[in-house]
Structures are given as C-alpha cells and as structure tokens.
Amino acid sequence: MLSLRSAQFIAATWHLVLCKPGQNHIACRNLRGMGFDVFMPLHMSDRRRRGRLQQEPMPVFKGYVFVSAGQGAGQWHKLRSTPGVAQLIGFAGGVPAQVPASVVAGLMERCDAEGLLQPDQDFARGERIRITSGPFTDFVTTIEHVDAESRVHVLLDLLGSKARVAIDPARIARAI
C-alpha cells in the first residue's frame, strides 16, 4: 500500500465512490483488498455515547470515499458489487467521473499519516469563524485574539451577555 504522502499516491487519477449508509470503513477495507488506492479524510467529531460526548474520527465527506485504480485498474465493473459500496459516481454509460487532482492533493496535504484532517493554523484577529464541534457548535463569531499556544479566543453572545471563550483551532472553520 502506498503512503498517503507519496508522490505516486497524490498524483493518481481520483474518482468518487458513494458508500452505503454508515459503511465508509467497510467499503475502504474491501476496496483496498481489491487493489484500489483509497483516500478517506477524517476529522474529529463529537459523538454522544451512553449519555457522554466523546471525540472520535469521522469521515469528512460522510458517505463518500476517493478511489484510484492503483492495482485494481480495469476492475471498475466489480466496484458496484463490493460490500459497503453503493455506486461509483460517474456519467451516463458507466464512465467514472474524475475528481480534480488539485482538490484531492489539497486534502491530502492537510492530513496527517492516519488521514486525520489538520486544521488551518493561520487564523487572525478579526476573522469570522464558525465553531464546528463542542457545546457551541454552529456559532459564528469573530476572533478576538490567538494566544501563544494557538488557542483562539472569541467573544460569544450567550443569552444577552458576552462571554470570552478559548477554543481549540481543531474545532473551528472559517465562516463562509
């Protein structure tokens, strides 16, 4: 299996596979077993288990994985019957659609060795952000300052009063 950082892996021609609900990991395992190169970027997400919030890695694109032919070239027809796979995203006539290489390469550059998407570290004062996980999920606010440990400090409007909160950069994204 190729390393996530290898030039051959990044330069490959990538396609998109729709997985059956909740079966991203099953599809990845089976596709790798068939000789396909698979890339599924992950991010840390809060999940409630037995009444407690726990952080666990979840697919960034729920229900989708990126696939390159690798050693499985010429086996696209077998993909539909692979356990965990619903379909290969493509055009009429069964031609698989290509994902722009710049999109996949950009995602790979931001991932660590386990495929975990690393947050942008270059947040600046005054920038608008959206909190992506934790008790303030989906709050949109402005950065007050970034401290020496790279924690982002924001001012949240909670029930009519302002509260200063320090947030891990892994839990925020730029607001669109």
UniProtKB/TrEMBL annotation:
> Which InterPro entries does the record cross-reference, listed alphabetically?
NGN-like_dom, NGN_dom_sf, NusG-like, Translation_prot_SH3-like_sf
Q: Which UniProt keywords apply?
A: Transcription, Transcription antitermination, Transcription regulation
Query: Which Pfam families does the entry mention?
Result: NusG
The answer to keyword Secreted applying to this record is: no
Biological process GO terms, please?
DNA-templated transcription elongation; transcription antitermination
Q: What's one GO-annotated cellular component?
A: cytosol
Where does the NusG-like N-terminal domain lie?
13-105
| Protein name from the UniProt record | NusG-like N-terminal domain-containing protein
Q: Tell me what organism the protein belongs to.
A: Roseovarius tolerans
Q: Mind giving the lineage of the organism this protein is from? A: Bacteria, Pseudomonadati, Pseudomonadota, Alphaproteobacteria, Rhodobacterales
